[in-house]
Amino acid sequence: MAGQFTRGFCAVSCVLTLALSAGLGCRRTPEPAGSASESGSSTGLPPGPAAMQTAAAAPTASSAPPVEITWVDPQGLRRVPPKNAMRKASYEVPHAAGDTEDGELAVFYFGPGLGGGIEQNVARWVKQFSGIQPGDVKRADRQANGLREHTVEIARGTFESGMPGIGSSGPKKDYALEGAIVEAPSGAYFFKMTGPAKTVAAARAAFLQLLDSVRPAEPLH
To answer: Which of 49, 79, 116, 131 sits 20 to 30 Å CA-CA off 185?
Structure first.
């Protein structure tokens, strides 16, 4: 009887021991925080060198306006309000002795890259006069304060004033033109003086004085 009890107790002990060992064997130690399996995530990590280079190379828009030009009003020419929005400035050229009509000087500026090329504008000015031969047009290149200037002179001809259908007062005989195209950092400026031949000839020195004073304006900050 005692032997049977001993064998039974040993059997139960063995079963309990095996069950406890199996339970301990199934338990696993959890991975610590920051283990290798989590280090590959980009969340919360600073950008690598490639990302930093891309961000540094991104262009930034400049709010600085293009540098325009300035000049000094010459003596003998009176600045008046421009006739239209295309004119940057307008001047009245007092008529000379023997002429009954004043001349005018208009300054045009259309914006960077606008207004057409030099040859295109010179040809347009010449076409505003009838009876003009190529040899009648005097042209010269000059510089003032680092800016290139292209001058055009028509000493006498019949001038078609105004634009067709817009303020044209008909052809004007014995008229003249002094013109200049100034290549500025912000685009071309067009200086055009027209009027009776004697009046324009008398104001030529003042016109060149104005061109000599043209210079780039200080950039705005």
So the answer is: 79
pTM: 0.67
Mean per-residue pLDDT for 100-127?
91
Show the beta-strand stretches assigned E in 124-184.
Answer: 129-130, 137-144, 147-160, 171-184
Phi, psi of 91 (to 5 degrees): -135, 150
Residues 88-103: b if buried by 16+ CB within 10 A, e if exposed: bbbbebebbeebeeeb
Domains parsed from the chain with CATH numbers: 77-215 (3.40.1000.10)
Amino acid 170 reads G
Q: How far is CA 10 from CA 2, 3, 20, 98, in A?
A: 12, 11, 15, 145
Residue 102 belongs to what H/E stretch?
none
